[in-house]
Amino acid sequence: MAERKTMPSEGKAHSVLVTGCSSGIGYCVARGLKERGYRVVASARRQQDVERLREEGLDCLRLDLDDSESIRRAVEELAERTGGRLYGLFNNAGYGQPGAIEDLDRETLRRQFETNVFGTMELTRRILPWMRAAGEGRIIQNSSVLGFVSLAYRGAYNASKYALEGLYDTLRLELAGSGIHAILIEPGPITSAFRNNAWAAYRRHIDREHSVHREQYLAMERRLTQAGAVVPFTLPPEAVLDKVVRALESPRPRPRYYVTFPTWLFGTLKRVLSTRALDRVLLRVSRDEQN
User: Fold this and answer.
1) What are the structural domains of the chain?
2) What is the pTM of this model?
3) First and final CA of the chain: distance in angstroms?
4) 157 tagged catalytic
């Protein structure tokens, strides 16, 4: 059954904050929502990206989720621009840290969680009082198929997305009856700079030569650096934009929106297969990625 769409309440602010807008999904969603008539405030971590987005006509501010002071300043600036009224928050900023579990030291895991989980939830906590005062709002999290199934050598990223899913499932219960909806969007492969960012994180934190997983890492390197390589079933970022629009405009948004065939497939397999049977499928996928 198709969802009926509606814009936010008449006469109230239609402002939406989108994080991680330097490229890919965040960039597409920010521009797409602006074209749809929303007042979009985009954010990016690097000042040069902020300036570029402003030159392109986007209202943009600097926000580094690893830095509580940066979050505080960004929220203060956002309050000045919107009058403390925000209908939507699309938490998109984040990255993926590749590597085997036994090669991830404490600091590397902490960095993954600082950005993907702790910074994201700190920003959300600062915005929630505005939505409570308005009696409505949509908090939308860009999660992943790897938020409910796991692949080998993605442990840090898997764990961060699992954590976000648990926090949002809890937040949804705690917001019941408030007029505020907590919504998860779960993409599979999407065209973006994610692979390049993962490659950079891998090079910073993984010592290939002293790892028992050296051969698997060599295969991973070939995959991450292969020019023009396309993962099967990859969709453009507009596929995520479509779900964000639905999450913002449906009077009864779904708790979860799947994006791409692999997400639908693994969502179904997780429900119908035993843990061991699902492990066999996921192990095959993980091995295929190394070939």
Assistant:
1) 15-289 (3.40.50.720)
2) 0.92
3) 41
4) yes
